[in-house]
């Protein structure tokens, strides 16, 4: 795991979550700007997934590969699911789903860091 990339994912995810929180408080639905923020975050998550798989293939660390890759894939699926749900539920609660999805990402990244460091094996 690349520390700068993980930190970027966490910071960007929390920023988009804050943006979604503001929309929830203001009783707004998901708009194009928030969807663009989610797309940017998804691209960074995709970069992390590719980097993580490449590093896993070349490491001699004791890392549970199936679990690690599962977290990488899971992180990629959270935001599209949240975006789809928010577009189907055009109320503030759809926006709250995006908020929840963005808050899940830092937890998944923290768990990946634990697995990579060998603390969660």
Plain-language structure description:
There is one protein chain. The chain is elongated. Helix 1 (3-25) packs antiparallel against helix 2. With 121 residues, it is mainly α. It contains 4 helices and no strands. Helices cover 82% and strands 0% of the residues.
Give the CA-CA distance, first to last residue.
15 Å
Measured as a percent range, the helix fraction is over 70%
DSSP summary, beta strand count: 0
Q: Residue-averaged pLDDT, rounded?
A: 91
Q: How large, in whole angstroms, is the Cα Rg?
A: 15 Å
Judged by helices, strands and strand pairing, the structural class is mainly alpha
Give the count of helical stretches: 4
Q: What is the string of SSEs from the N terminus onward?
A: HHHH
Gross morphology is elongated
How much strand? under 5%
Low-confidence stretches: none
Largest sheet: none
Descriptive key words:
mainly alpha; 0% strand; 121 residues; elongated
Task: Describe how the helices and strands are arranged.
Layout: H1 3-25, H2 32-57, H3 65-88, H4 92-117
Quick summary:
The chain has 121 residues and is mainly alpha-helical. 82% of the residues lie in helices and 0% in strands.
């Amino acid at each position: 795991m690349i520390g700068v990339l993980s930190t970027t994912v966490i910071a960007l995810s929390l920023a988009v979550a804050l943006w979604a929180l503001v929309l929830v408080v203001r009783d707004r639905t998901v708009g194009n700007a928030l969807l663009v923020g989610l797309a940017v975050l998804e691209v960074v998550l995709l970069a992390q997934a590719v980097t993580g798989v490449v590093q896993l293939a070349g490491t001699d660390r004791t890392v549970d590969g199936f679990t690690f890759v599962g977290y990488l894939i899971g992180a990629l699926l959270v935001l599209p699911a949240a975006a789809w749900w928010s577009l189907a539920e055009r109320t503030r609660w759809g926006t709250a789903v995006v908020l929840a999805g963005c808050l899940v990402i830092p937890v998944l990244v923290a768990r990946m860091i634990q697995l990579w460091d060998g603390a969660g094996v």
